[in-house]
Amino acid sequence: MLEKKSLNILIVDDDEDDFFITSEYLKNIQNGYKLNIEWCGRYQEALDQVCDGKHDIYFVDFRLGAKNGLDLIKEAINSNCQHPMILLTGKGNQEIDIMAMEAGAVDYLVKSELNVEKLERCIRYALGRFEYIKALKANEQKFRLFFEKSKDSVFIAEENLHFKDVNEGTVHLTDYTKSELLEMTLFDLFVNKEERDFVEHELKTKGEISDKEVELLTKSKERVNCILTVSREVDGKGEVYMQGIIHNITILKKSEKAALHTEKLNAAQRLLRTLAHEVRNPVNNIYLALEQLVPVLKEEEPRDLVEIIDRNSRRINALITELLDTSRPIEIVLERLPLQQIMDETIAVALDRITLKKIKLSVNYLASSAWIMADKAQLKIAFLNIIINAIESMKEDEGELVIEIKKETSGFMVAISDNGKGISEENLTRLFEPYFTSKLNGMGLGLASTLNIIKAHKGMIEVKSVVGEGTSFYISFDTVD
């Protein structure tokens, strides 16, 4: 035979006779529980026992002297009492019934109508409701923990995507405070109107959007690449709300771009080495033929043609050597240096060009030294290539060149921005390819060399540009102690 489970009941009633009547009904209940019934007739003592949580169910009389049972239930609920409380009263009153439910009581019973069956049903209902609420709160706590602790941005919003609640991940992603975000909509963060219009249309027509890549703008004006998922939901009251997750993929996108640049550079280098090898062999044969030909030429024979062959062969050989030099990894000697010093020396080299073209220069550095491991000479070449390109892209007396050094999570970032003519999307994808250039007299080696140098420093470089508005280069480095 299975042992009955104990059920601890406290009856709070200032009338001992009423306690005995209620307890007798309870003792006659056959519901598989072993009932342990206790009595308390004083308000404060009863409140202390309820708050201790030592009982499974509380029957609370409405009349308890100066205060009543509703007051006790309210105080207990405010003190985080979790167990079910049932209000007892001398006669039926719909107003008290409603007040009892609003105070937090799970049920309401009239003493004159009590019987064993009614009390058994009330206990069964109260315990079932208690288990349901406990499970509901556990789920709420679990999802609240997910909401608060998620590294991704998680938010609840109105139908127009006006934020109603956001987690710390949203604050970290956007740089706005929680109170600032609650005054905004998700659309306020969008960079591109086309993306905003697409998201708005999808939510209106389909009620959800999944894994949409969007670009958001933070409070500090940093553009971040994100994956957005939003869906329309309906709560228990029938009210519509939006819930969403934003996953930051900026680092992933930068890594993909860096990998693409590297692969393009490696492919170009392989091609250059192959071409150089295939061209150098016939050039060497020309040299050998010339060595044999020159001694046997008669004085009246055209030596100027031989000199043309010799001169152009040497030029081809020099170009091959240059090609091979650009395809080799940069050899660097690293030392601990502040980025501010390297950039100051780079600007000094370019200052004459900046002055002659009447370009407005703005420099914004960190107050503290941005220490990195660097080869100063090589890094100056990389920065100078970018700055010279920026100068050449701007109109005289209208140009603005902005150079910044910022702190990042794992290091420092150099930002070099201009308001020049910008770079088309097509050219942007080929920017670091060797021998690709949009300049009439350019060789197309400057930015290829820059990428090589940045890679040698284990840095990352990203370019953003809008035709007619300007270009920004962002170069990231790891910090050192």
Strand order of the largest sheet: 2-1-3-6-7
Helicity level: 40-55%
Q: What is the CATH H-level superfamily of the largest domain?
A: Histidine kinase-like ATPase, C-terminal domain
Q: How would a textbook summarize the main sheet?
A: 5 strands, parallel
Number of strands: 19
Tell me the quaternary state.
single chain
Number of domain units:
4
Short key terms for the protein model shown above:
481 residues, 5-stranded parallel sheet, alpha/beta, 4 domains, 5-stranded antiparallel sheet, Rossmann fold, rod-shaped, 14 helices, single chain, Beta-Lactamase, 19 strands
Tell me what the structure shows.
This protein folds into four domains: 5-146, Rossmann fold; 150-248, PAS domain (Beta-Lactamase, 2-Layer Sandwich); 253-327; 335-478, Histidine kinase-like ATPase, C-terminal domain (Heat Shock Protein 90). Helices cover 46% and strands 25% of the residues. The chain has 14 helices and 19 strands. It has a five-stranded parallel β-sheet, sandwiched between helices. It has a five-stranded antiparallel β-sheet with strand order 9-8-12-11-10. The protein has a five-stranded mixed β-sheet with strand order 14-16-17-19-18. The longest helix is centred in the middle third of the chain and has 44 residues, at 250-293. It is rod-shaped and about 145 Å long. The model has no long low-confidence stretch (mean pLDDT 83).
